[in-house]
Amino acid sequence: MPGELCHLGEDRVATETLIACRNVWKIFGARPEQHLAALSDTGGTGMPGHVVAVRDVTLDIARGEMLVVMGLSGSGKSTLVRCLSRLIEVTAGTINIGGADLGAMSETQLIALRRQKMGMVFQSFGLLPNRSVLDNVAFPLEMRGQDRATRHARAREMLDLVSLQGREDYFPRELSGGQQQRVGIARSLAVEPEIWFLDEPFSALDPLIRREMQDEFLRLKGLLGKTIVFITHDFDEALRLADRIAIMKDGAIEQCDTPDRIVMHPATEYVAKFTSAIDRARVIRAGSLAEPGLANSLEGGAVCGQHTIRSLARQLVNDTRDIIPVTNPDGVLLGGMNRQAALDVLLGEGA
Amino acid sequence: MTLPSATRQAPPQPNYTRVALILLTLACGLGLLKSALPSGFVRPPEWLILPFADWINGFFKFLREDLGLLTLTRAFADALQWLLDVTANLLYGKARWPRIGPIPWTVIAISAAAIGYALKGWRLAALCGGTFVWIALMGQWKWAMETLSVIVVATPFSVGLGLALGILAWRSPRFEQVLNPVLNIAQSLPHFAYMIPVVVFIGVGPKAGAIVTIIFSVPPMIRMTLLGMKKVPPEVIESGKMSGATPWQLLRAVRLPTARTELLIGVNQVIMQCLAMVVLASFIGMPGLGQKLLQLLQALKIGLSVEIGLTIVLLAIMLDRASKAWAVRQPEHHAPGSSWVWRHRVLVIWAVLVTVAFGLAQVVPYLHIVQRSQAFSIAGPIDALMDQFIRMIAPVTAWLRWFLIVWVLVPLRDAFLWMPFTAVLTLLAAAGWAVGGVRSALICLGFFGAIAMSGWWDRAMITVYMVCISVILAALIGFPLGIWAARRAARAQRLLLLCDTAQTFPSFIYLIPVIMLFGVNDVAVVAAVVVFAAVPLVRYTIEGLRGVPSELVEAADMSGATARQVLWHVRLPMALPTIMVGLNQSVMFSLFMVIIAAFIGTQDLGQEMQRALSSSDVGKGLVLGFAVAFMGLMVDHLLMQWSAARKKALGL
After folding, report:
1. Is residue B4 very low, low, confident or very high in pLDDT (cuts 50, 70, 90)?
2. What is this structure's pTM?
3. Which CATH number fits domain B458-652: 1.10.3720.10, 1.10.357.10, 2.60.120.10, 3.40.50.720?
4. What ipTM is given for this predicted complex?
């Protein structure tokens, strides 16, 4: 199975779907239903004064998966994540979370769901300016009525997790942007959510801090094993963090696949525009070039499928074999990698 | 002069000048042909004048007697009276429950200083404490506390009411739509218009003063609440929702705390409005500083009224600075490991000092209450100094008075009264059309048509003439001053601070110096209004000029423009929309001031309003009040419409 990531392997296929979107539409305007009807009836332009923010999105997110939704501003990615958390109501379509229909939930059920199962991180942090760092992190716990001592204890734990010990009594405006976002992350994790939404969490930060926060995020992700929906407009960030990437344009999902496959087989021209500018060797991993059919007559040292072609560059140049064996991290043989193909990736197609 | 951004603006502005010119010609024609006009064109004919006053009186009679509203309002007033008595007992020892007062003045001064220190440090502490020391030592304790007790009782009511109505308006856009025009009118009604209905329902005295203060100070709180609620960033609300907050939790724990600054600015405005009103409420028998000032001014005791005036000014500055400091205060963390005493050091020091002061006050009566006979007074020296000063400049003021009355005021007044009302209406329609087409023309006609139909045309024209001349004079002073001040940053800063401070004074204060200089006549009124109206003009001129984007000025400098060219071709055109906002405020302030100044003898709407007040004639009082409000609203519409169009054209 070329293109399947070795470290995900078979497990992901087996895991159940946690969030299922079916034909979700979100239209802003005075009469969204009529607009939708006009769109589907005639296939025409619909009514004036309406904006389609999410267009017929069907998407499954598996338990424990990290999905990155990537798109430029105005592509509807933030709207989509707000539909998933029902911060805004969808115009049409259904969203199922753990088997329950999100749209059919009552206000009380929705609040209970958010108190138990959801956490969200916001682009401009969304911290309460009048509360100390500790009280901000404890806020979701306070909302569900936990007493002061327990919620403070839990909040301290969370602050340790994001390395903000000693800042408990500070107020948001006394912290740097990166630190504020750490508070936002700690708050979103305070209730131990199953599902973690992050809406462009690092976009408001400057590049160095952003990089640092991405590393921090990868650490947390490995530690916690949550189902994550991550929004970004930064393609590099998406490639760096994602299990799967959904690329959005004008409210619709253009392609939803693993980073390797998006880079190697862009589904549309729009996606290709993103992928053309990036260094493919940094994204494509040996595992995705391994072909099981070539694995029969292999001998000698193997490479780990998780490594990117870029990190294998020296070895690829020096190794004289035509076919190089590839294994997964446990040492199980995945297949053989055509060295010429790998060099093509490394040097670019035209080289 | 067109800026690049103006030409880039795509939507073609309809050109209103042609119709406006036709209307202007028509207005001039009507004026020139006055002698040939039938009398119905010169003054509103009998059949046009509607008995609004009778209708309002009928309506109020229905409210009072048939709906039994009187018992309700009296019951509310009695509850308020009880609260006033409690504060009066605590502050100056009025013999009422709980009979523990009066609190020694030293304790109150120390407490004020502690609050000042906690809010902003030593300077505010000195201002707050010093104000109370001054009040006590000058022997004005009782009057000042009478005034303050009303503010203390009225402010929470106004804030609560404003908060509730503001939240209601934020929740229901339909309610907001209804509330907005009501607020517009309420904020342009002169102070006296509020007093008359209150006198009818409550009578005169402190509780009437308190109620009128509450009603008068609610609108800004509603506005600021609405603004604050709308300004809460959507992400903060979303983060609250994602934290699983119920709608009530969201309001209490997320929206209101996040809107803190706006809400507290609202509280600041409520306090300042309360002070302004409570001083004026002396007209309906409210005891305190205002009443004292009124008596002293009427008796022309300048030295003593300056003393009272200083107290009012000090109170105003103190209340304004303290409440603003509270509004902009940001929470700060304590260093980890600091002890309880250190974290609450202001509280601890306050407690110690207050205990000491209480103890000393028992031993030394002077520290408890300063008797009248023990009080300082600087009235004598002030009177002497003023006498000398006035004698010195008497030739100037006398000449100025003569010149203004004979050559400016009387001819202008005659000109305004000479104009046929049809000509005035056509003129206003022309102005409206020039600014905003047929809609604005109709709005102008509507507002002034209603005034014509009220039957107070002549009086209204006198008010208009007073406002016109005052605003023109204020502009002649305010513009150059503003332009001069805006040339240097530090100078602009200083003058802005001065304007800020001057704007906190209750309007009444402005009458003291002008009566001192000009005596009791039209010139004094105009002088007071001019000073009062010049303040916003200076302020907005400076803000407009300083607010011009620096790249524009730099670009002009690099094009080799001289300072004068930069001013005329870059700064002024860009600043004009802001300056118009100042002009608008200036007109509003003049209207209010002209009406207040009526008690030193004018023949305009204000004088009639005072008559209505003394005879408790609600209908007449409200008709006059609305006439004033309509003038204000019309000017507001014209200037704001123009300013908005201009801003749009400049791409601001």
Report:
1. very low
2. 0.87
3. 1.10.3720.10
4. 0.85
